[in-house]
Amino acid sequence: MMLQAMIDGAGNLDPYTSDFKELIDLCYSCRRCVEVCPAGIPIPDLMSYARHAYQNRAGSSALTLGHRIFANYGTFDRLGSLVAPLSNFMLRRVQVRTAMEWLTHIDARARLPPFYGQSFESWFRKQSIRQREKKIVYYIDSYANFNEPNLGRTVFALLDHLGYEVLVPPQRESGMPAIEYGLIEKARRLARYNLRQLSPYAREGIPIVCSSPAATFLLREGYKRIVGEEGDLNDVSKAVTDVAELLCSELEMGNLEFDDEPQGKATYHYCCLSKALSLGQSTMKLLRAAGIECNLVEECCGGAGAWGTFKENYALSSEIAAKLRRKLAPNVGVLTESETCRLQVEAHITTEVRFPVEALAKRVRGIQHAR
Asked: Is residue 190 within 8 Å of 175, Cβ to Cβ?
């Protein structure tokens, strides 16, 4: 309503004041408003463009160093991986975290992902990939490449077990933070690069699988907000599938079998982006088929990507996480598809958190796990 009033010239709203910027920054792009809005207004996209307009007026002071680091997370992940384990050692030092908070506004208490010296891409290049009739492209995104390459290896093992020849073309990070912070031109460059790399495969009818809900969302529908209806986007958008959707399809075709014995209980945290993609039904079906008794919880964790890591948001983020904590059963592990939700739950609720695909891979009959 405020943005519409600004566009219509009603009232006395100035989008270039710090007060207005502080207000719209309370939107952390969970996209839950979109699904309940009768008119389907893409409010998070409006917020991104409002931040973009503010930056054009305010200049470099519009964003902190921390915002710029997260907006360029692919570059920083690559650098952190290059000097790991030194980078991890430094990030654990209280003095370093305190100085970083002062310089970047990233709260010293925030949980940040570790770096691995061997990325998924470097590991993948050393593998002997068998040529097969069934082919699939894996869009890794940065987290499964540099911060948790075991996640990438798990996805590879599942795809290989299902008879796919896995292809990993050149790619860059998907760019969700750049969009959220209003760095539209940077996000547009990332989108066009990734679309150029992926579209030749899409035109050949080769599916593109993602293990990050942010990547699935952007490749399927998010990029069109910043690049329009370009040919590369249309091809890629139709080819993209989330790993949960792919595994569920393979299960229904009888290509995926799980061990018979029951596997205990877990809580499935239905994170905001997974909800926007309607992944819950596929994930729950897979978990039940794998013998995992699972309770679905939809409460937001308050992490919202990197939003909860900033010192101006940390207390509110923790307050939101407390609402989720009350919904979780004690001594029951949590499963979530979101990388940042995993960090948030581990930091504020201190319980074991895994990705559903990891829990499923341990239950697949006859799988050869990647090493």
From this structure: yes
**Considering 40, 62, 84, which residue would you say is the last residue of a domain?**
62
- Per the CB < 8 A criterion, the answer to whether 81 and 115 are in contact is yes
Taken in order 286, 289, 294, 297, the sign of the CA dihedral is positive
For 88, the token pair is: 């991890």
Has residue 22 got a pLDDT over 70?
yes
Q: Which of 7, 35, 62 is the last residue of a domain?
A: 62
For residue 308, tell me if it sits in a domain.
yes
Residue 227 has φ and ψ, to the nearest 5°, of -115, -5
Provide the residue range defining the domain that includes 275. Answer: 256-359
The torsion angles phi and psi of 180, rounded to 5 degrees, stand at -60, -35
Rounded-to-integer distance, Cα 240 and Cα 248, Å? 15
Q: Is residue 277 part of a domain?
A: yes
178-214: b or e for each residue (b if 16 or more CB lie within 10 Å)? Answer: bbbbbbbebbbbbbbebbebbbebbeeebbbbbbbbb
The residue type at 204: E
- Asked if residue 93 is part of any domain, the answer here is no
Q: List CB contacts of 252: < 8 A, sequence separation 6 or more.
A: none
Give how many domains the chain has, as a whole number.
2
- The tens digit of pLDDT for each residue in 118-151 reads 999 999 999 988 899 999 999 999 999 999 999 9
